[in-house]
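Researcher: Sequence recovery benchmark, item below. Answer with residues only.
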């Protein structure tokens, strides 16, 4: 194992782990990971009783069998080469072990190019897969098998209050080593409010161009709480940044977007930050994955869940190659099967289960790159918090009402600071009513904009918006031209497609595939 993992052992097994793992029968992080690992090895553990942000690898000494698992939140995982029956925490390490003997996984590439993430456990390399949060994996000299953890559906769990989890997480933290993402929205502010409530004053970190509206909000929060704020400007790139971004992405996600996270990790390591708290997962508490059906009056089924949540990662782009079109029916069938397996319990629970796999596939691959050097903690992704916080009628979760309540209870001084959308985090009923009216006007404006765009009446800016500038920089590089040629040779981009036909937002994914198979 690499540096950063803790190693413990007894006469029966050896354990390597990173992160923080809690057992509901203890108030502190598990002091005896060997005891927990013995229970896991002997299949005597209820995985619903474990929470936290961690990954564990256990080796049984008698027969050298490995058991691998990540946390229930999906923030950390392992990568397994099913052909060689070896594993690592890095895809690129397994690639190196194959010494260039790699083939593309066209189903994974289709998902990546279409939706920007890979929902299945596959990677872009055939027969190398990541572990999923709902399973533990057994690797012996003869086979690889996975066993379902038996995690409760969201509807079958009473859940946990956010303040309960945050109290446990904050118990032994040294604030000198704690940072927290501070954006203009409500989700990171919800987590920050609880850190402040439990006596932790973290250093705040934000990545954004100078005209990013998040910066003004973050500065107000910083001044209000008398904290320090680090603003990372993505335009400051050194020579070779694309290769650096590829290495950090581990060949798992859009490398341009990953570069911003690489800079955050470098800052955290230079500042000796051990933890980075963030607000990933706030979608659940807005019922983001379910609200479509409420206002459309539709009966929720797995077919509709697939149509609204997942179909976007099975549609071959207009610039996609023939091999992607060939694999499309198989990918659609596999993803439909994944969606079907989650339809137990209440409809809300089922849609959140699908949503959880989506967010784990999007954000978990980045969180995993921080570990084990820096532990990235997103409390809102913890299953028990989702189970408790996302329940109830959808109307009760509009206007970020859950986050507003949590912020007001934990740190009221943050309630009146406006978000990047111009709304407060107030719980005052009169102010909330006014903000609801403003939001209705906002959505009406968006609808008009879409209609104008379809009619060809929208004004198009000559310069890319601030969130696309990194992609514009990357698309103008030699590395992108080379990656485009490789993708054409692989058959995942059409032979006659020209550079101008590729959307800016797909630049990082094309770079990833092209650099992986160059």
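Model:
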């Amino acid at each position: 194992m690499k540096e950063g993992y803790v190693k413990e052992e007894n006469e029966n097994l050896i354990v390597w782990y990173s992160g923080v793992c809690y057992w509901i029968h203890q108030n502190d992080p598990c002091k005896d990971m060997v005891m927990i690992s013995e229970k896991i090895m002997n299949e005597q553990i209820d995985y619903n009783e474990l929470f936290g942000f961690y990954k564990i690898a256990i080796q049984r000494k008698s027969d050298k069998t490995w058991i691998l698992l990540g946390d229930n939140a999906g923030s950390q995982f392992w990568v397994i080469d099913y052909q060689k029956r070896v594993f690592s925490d890095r895809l690129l390490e397994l690639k190196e072990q194959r010494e260039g003997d790699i083939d593309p996984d066209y189903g994974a590439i289709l998902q990546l190019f279409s939706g920007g993430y890979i929902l299945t456990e596959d990677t872009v390399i055939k027969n190398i897969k990541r572990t999923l949060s709902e399973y533990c994996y057994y690797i012996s000299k003869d086979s690889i098998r996975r066993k379902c953890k038996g995690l409760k559906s969201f509807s079958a769990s009473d859940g946990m209050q956010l303040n309960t989890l945050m109290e446990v997480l904050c118990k032994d933290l040294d604030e000198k080593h704690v940072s927290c993402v501070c954006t203009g929205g409500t989700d990171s502010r919800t987590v920050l409010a609880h850190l402040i409530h439990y006596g932790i004053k973290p250093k705040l970190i934000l990545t954004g161009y100078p005209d990013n509206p998040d910066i003004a909000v973050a500065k107000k929060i910083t001044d209000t709480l008398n904290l320090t704020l680090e603003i990372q400007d993505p335009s400051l790139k050194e020579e070779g940044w694309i290769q650096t971004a590829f290495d950090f992405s581990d060949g798992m996600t859009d490398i341009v977007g990953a570069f911003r996270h690489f800079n955050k990790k470098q800052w955290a390591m230079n500042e000796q930050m051990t933890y980075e708290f963030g607000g990933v997962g706030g979608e659940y508490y807005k019922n983001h994955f379910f609200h479509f059906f409420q206002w459309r009056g539709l009966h929720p089924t797995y077919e509709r869940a697939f149509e609204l949540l997942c179909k976007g990662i099975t549609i071959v782009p207009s610039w996609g190659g023939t091999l992607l079109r060939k694999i499309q029916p198989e990918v659609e069938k596999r993803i439909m099967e994944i969606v079907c397996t989650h339809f137990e319990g209440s409809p809300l629970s089922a849609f959140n289960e699908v949503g959880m796999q989506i967010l784990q596939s999007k954000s978990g691959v980045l969180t995993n790159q921080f570990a084990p050097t820096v532990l990235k903690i997103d409390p809102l992704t913890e299953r028990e918090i989702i189970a408790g916080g996302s329940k109830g009628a959808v109307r009760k979760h509009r206007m970020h009402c859950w986050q507003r309540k949590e912020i007001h209870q934990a740190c009221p001084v943050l309630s009146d600071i406006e978000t990047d959308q111009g709304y407060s985090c107030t719980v005052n009923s009169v102010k909330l009513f006014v903000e609801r009216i403003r939001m209705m006007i906002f959505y009406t404006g968006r609808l008009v904009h879409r209609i104008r765009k379809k009619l060809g009446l929208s004004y198009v800016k000559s310069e890319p918006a601030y969130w696309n500038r990194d992609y514009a920089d990357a698309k103008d590089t030699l590395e992108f031209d080379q990656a485009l040629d490789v993708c054409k040779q692989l058959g995942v981009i059409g032979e006659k497609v020209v550079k101008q036909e590729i959307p800016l937002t797909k630049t990082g994914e094309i770079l990833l595939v092209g650099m992986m198979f160059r």
